[in-house]
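[Structure tokenization] protein backbone as discrete codes

[Encoding] learned vocabulary of local backbone shapes

[Begin record] amino acids and matching fold tokens:

___
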Amino acid sequence: MAQTIVGLNDPKARKLWSADLMVNVAKQSYWTRKMMGKGSETTQPVMLQTDLEQEAGDAVSYDLSVQLTGELIEGDAKAEGKGEKLDFFTDKVMIDQGRKPVSCGGKMSRKRTVHDLRKVGRNRLTEYWARFYDEQFFMYGSGARGVNDDYSVGLDYTGRAGNPFQAPDSDHILYGDGGSKALLTVAGKMSRVLIERANTKASSMGGGSTQIAEIQPINIGGGEHFVVVMSPFQAHDLKTGTDAGNWLDIQKAAAAAEGASNPIFKDNLGMIGNTILHKHKSVIRFSDYGAGTNLPAARALFLGRQGLVLAFGSPGNGLRFDWSEVPLDHGNDIEICAGAIFGVKKTRFNNKDFGLIALDTYAANPN
């Protein structure tokens, strides 16, 4: 009986492994699995833009319509010709190609079939791309690389695809205490009070003639919520700084909330007010806070709608990832490469962050 073999770089193989990689990365990435929705109408923290998957270009622009201001035309006073002009702020995200090659080794060291190697290579690439995406969201959301020692990129990394890191503006950052990076002390830890302050700030600032966009809550199961993603060190401080009864209430609030089956509620720490609490090890950390520039700190992200954007450009195969397999050394070695054309950034209008607030606190390793 004849055996069907899909060889190296066969078009069917490229599409199969590209699609498989795309699905698995989406399943493993924290941000794309829990926090992303498509298009400018999404109510999720990450806005997925796909315009360039069908059209040529290296940037996607998106607009924010500014609220109307001013007074009514009263009584019989003439309204004609007094229409207020519509104002828009514009932001854009750039995209570029990024690729990651993997060597499958020589024949004697492999002792496997090409198909097994594809699976092994796919699994390792899935892990890498999911981790890389998550790191991109944390760095761009925080506007900094930080000192995390388990990142894929070096400490001098400043971003990719022409999208620079943008530090939080003064209206979109809160500190555990002191009111600034230099004034943070060891007492300025993550706390219920800080999260309540952020919730109040998000619910009250902006709009009208302030030229600051309001942070819109995430719609989950008919309820309106915000999300805080904090480091494990910050989560430890929040738990140990709150008495057991209060912490139990925080957990009960999440379990009883509307939409508790939504992915954003999965693996949450609890809920304070209408803010769902999460922790993640890739939250950006620092080592230069306080008056002596020597205190460890972390930057939790308080998220509403569309605080971040991810844009893709198709590599030409109708899929978001490209897959290539190349024989090297006269066929003895095989190199697999997976790449995507994409860009990530924080949404920002009129030089102000949109959809998120940075929460900077003292955060030391408790171990």
